[in-house]
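Reminder: ligand-aware prediction takes two inputs, not one.
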Amino acid sequence: MSAPFHSDDVARQLDYCSYCPKMCRHACPVSTASGRETWIPQAKMDRLNWLRRGQLPWTTENTDPLWACTGCRHCTSYCDHGNEPGLVLLAGRAAAVARGVGHPALEGYGDRFRARDERLVARAHEAFDADRFAEDGQVGFWPGCDAVDKGAADVAAALAVFDKVGLGHVRLVDAPQSCAGYPLLAAGYPDLFRWHAGKVAASLRRFKTVVINCSACLYTLRAQYPAEGVSLPTEILSLAELMAQASAQIPRPTTRKTVYYHDPCHHARYTQVIEPPRRVLEQVADVRELAWSKGDTECCGGAGLLPKTMPTTADAMARRRLAEVAAQGGGMVVTSCATCTFMLRRNAPAGVEVADLPTAVAELTGTPFMLPALADDEP
Ligand code: SF4
Ligand code: SF4
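Here is what comes back for the chain with iron/sulfur cluster:
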């Protein structure tokens, strides 16, 4: 969970990183993909420490490194102190925004977030029949904002697979929100996040279980809501976990394809959703591991609002992730997060197909699903 910027814990982590011989520098996909030394974890934490101690003024230029992070937690995996640059830098962003120094690309982000959320609620109702929705129930499927925005076909595939494997009772969550609010935290708006989280919790608590296909918002719902004092007794599952519960009902194809699996970092290093998607995939294909996988997965560039603040670097991270597959002659890469799917898909080289988990299962089992007819509004 994120700590208040002025806490002793944040100060301790910043001091340790400032004097560290850069033990985790190899692990940061942002600095590796960009080639920028000022974006290695040690340098980002050192910069924030200078700002915290008042040795540098809070300006747009000085705070730039705080935004060069997806919160992927790979650095933490290599830190003997268990330091959390991905979370401390979020606290630093909030401190910057509080001083009127947000990232220029995120100006007015609170209003933009609210407008997008409203637009996506309407888009979900445009895409799917009314009888697919419910305001309460045993299991609600709340796909996540990027799923509705960029992956409505993947949501349709999930609904088709539900029908096929005995999960036809799962309804789409009918709520006035489409996002659990992780982007507000990433943008440095913790107060707006708390306000939004309270509203989401009021909508979701009418379900016994809610299933989400966004790895960052899975972590947000499970960890950041309680950390911010927002009570949500509903069980929160990832889509991969729900599908794994029904994996025995997924028909095994007679001919099996080999597929790669990309672990979303918020699954692999925050919520430990590592085995369930593999259990699903192994039912329909032979799973081949990427060189960096499971707890050592490499970020696709989609988190931390990097696609908005540093889009060139974010896309370079996704291309790095898929280069290994292209070098092996291409093939299908499956993941289980709408944001990862979107980032990898839009950067896939020739010969590499990227599929979200339900779409891969639908394709590999010959399960037909309707492509929602939607106006292609905002990118
Ligand atoms: S996170 Fe750990 S390993 Fe990385 S710079 Fe900080 S102290 Fe060093
Ligand atoms: S959390 Fe990930 S992106 Fe952020 S500094 Fe650490 S390794 Fe880099």
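Residues 109-127 form the longest helix (19 residues). The chain has 19 helices and nine strands. We will return to this case in the review session.
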